[in-house]
Amino acid sequence: MKIYRNEHIERLAQDRLIELERITGKPLAPPIPIDLVAERVLGLQILWENVDELPGEIIFGAIVPKDRLIVLNERRKTLFEEKPGLERSTKGHEMGHWDLFVDKATLDHPVLFDDDDDGPFALRSCPHGEAAVLKILQASAEGQKLLREMEARGDEPDEARAVNRYAAALSMPKGLLREEAMKLDRTRWPNLYRLAETFDVTISAMCVRLQQLDLLYIGKDKKLFESRDQANGQMGLF
Fold first, then answer.
1. Handedness of CA 174, 180, 184, 188 (dihedral sign)
2. In the chain, where are the structural domains located?
């Protein structure tokens, strides 16, 4: 499996956004048009279909590389509607699988997507055939562990971490996000929620991204600081 550093992932996502600006002739502004990146830059189609789930699974999306197709799970449409930003995040993840890990020459997917119960990825059936999915096990210790790993700030060579970073870099480009974030008092939760609404992402995705860019630090009892240095400085006073 290929290993990518965060810097490479950020640069690749930024290149895709620059290409979209060239194609549309318009400067980017939040919320980023994720569907246009998929369709006009990456050449992917997006389709809603039922994706098979095993007992206890929640599957948001899948990718069928040979058809250049992202499949959103029709079974979970209500959940997408209840959680603003989840649909965009799912699309970004599948785009990350395509852009970072699919062998375009042969359209063979990495062995990580073999049906291996030890990993967070598996093959599931949909009307288009077998699709590679990111599975989240509902209400289970394994599922919660996966979610924590996906949101981690670490730089470990893991595909879940890589596509998560890619999705965040597409939806919340660091230049645009920094510009908007610096206008706000980031020590107040209502401001963070408004920022998440501006970029059309979940509040958890926004908080993770701000921490990645050292524009936020969440301390004990969810106390907010505008950076890690600010947190360390204030805590050092006690």
1. negative
2. 6-171, 174-238
Smallest Cα–Cα separation from 166: which of 90, 77, 83?
90
CA distances from 51 to 72, 126, 183 (A): 8, 5, 42
Give the right CATH number for 174-238 from 2.40.128, 1.10.10, 3.30.519, 1.10.8: 1.10.10
Distance CA 100, CA 54 (A): 27
**Percentage above 90 pLDDT, the chain:** 51
- Compute CA 8 distance to the chain's CA centroid, rounded to the nearest angstrom: 16
CA distances from 111 to 102, 116, 159 (A): 11, 9, 12
Cα separation, 194 vs 212, whole angstroms = 19
**CA 6 vs CA 148, 189, 193, 203: distances in Å:** 18, 27, 25, 22
The answer to whether the CB of 93 falls within 8 A of the CB of 163 is: yes
pLDDT, residue 33, reads: 96
The Cα–Cα gap between 97 and 160 comes to: 9
